[in-house]
Amino acid sequence: MLMLRYYSPTGFIGRLSFIQFPKKLTNCVVCAAKGPRPRYPRVWKTKPRIGTVSKSLKLVECIKGLSNVKEEVYGALDSFIAWDLEFPLITVKKALKSLERDKEWKRIIQVTKWMLSKGQGRTMGSYYMLLYALAEDGRIDEAEELWTKLFSDNLESMPRIFFDRMIAIYYRREMHDKMFEVFADMEELGIRPTVSIVNMVGDVFQKLGMLDKYEKLKKKYPPPKWEYRYIKGKRVKIRSQNLKGPYYANKEVNQSSYETNSDDESNADEFDVDDNEAHEVDEPGDSLKSPSVP
How far apart are CA 266 and CA 226, in angstroms? Predict the structure, then answer.
């Protein structure tokens, strides 16, 4: 027989007063076999680490106030990375970029040689920065020694930007014979010179009165009909006749990374600048940005 009883709400609440709930809740999980298991903090959660930008600035501040003694600089750099599990290559690269903006050529040479002595960062970009710093610091003999070593080790795979840099170094110091040797090596290896190289070599031919060689050079390497510039972050195709005067020395080397093309056909993804739009490109408000050198 089914029996139903009626409980009033007040009576049910009165019965709940006899039930005692625990006042303190423990953070535990009850296992069927071994009872409660405590929860320990996860060991793989770490505190936020310092970023590479701020660390590179600290590296620059660490070596800026030191003298030019090799042992002192190397000791400070070794103590800076003493607690790192791996070599902080990104931090050192950013520190070198910061030193390059400040034109601290001696520090760039010291940090780059220290990095190479550790067996790290042995790339063509590191060697190019070292070559550039040696030339700017006036240590031409060391720059030539480094160039000879790199050229002998990478005879058929030498980047063209190294030839640009060496020709610009010799052009600024009027070392014409060595500049002609580098240019002859380029032609022997089948490396097409850039517009800056042709302008520098042609200018030297005119100064020395070698007009016949100047005409042969211009005939062999005519100026391209199209050149590329980076205007406000966009790759723009511009007619060469609309560009202003030639660039020499360092300006030419900085422009060497621009690609040149002698074809008249334009790509759909690029912006063509016609004669009517040439004045918009040459306005002083438009800044020409080139990709950074490795």
Answer: 9
For CA atoms 275, 280, 283, 288, give the dihedral sign.
Answer: negative
pLDDT tier, 270 (very low <50, low <70, confident <90, very high otherwise):
very low
pLDDT in the model for residue 266: 40
- Among the residues of the chain, which ranges form H helices? 9-16, 52-64, 70-80, 89-101, 105-117, 124-136, 140-153, 160-172, 176-189, 195-207, 211-220, 249-254, 278-281
Q: What are residue 150's phi and psi, to 5 degrees? A: -65, -40
- Using the structure block, give the residue that is written with the tokens 């607690």: 83
Please say whether the beta carbons of 170 and 179 come within 8 A.
Answer: yes
Position 28 scores a pLDDT of 53
Rounded CA separation 178/176 (Å): 6
How far is C-alpha 124 from the geometric centre of its chain's CA atoms? 12
**What are the tokens at 67?**
């003298």
CA dihedral 132, 133, 136, 138 (to 10 degrees): -110
Instruction: Give the C-alpha separation, 266 to 238, whole Å.
Output: 10
Query: pLDDT value at position 288?
Result: 38
Q: Are strands 271-273 and 234-239 parallel, antiparallel or unpaired?
A: parallel
Identify the band that residue 5 occupies on the pLDDT scale cut at 50, 70 and 90: low
Contact by Cβ (8 Å): 179, 147? no
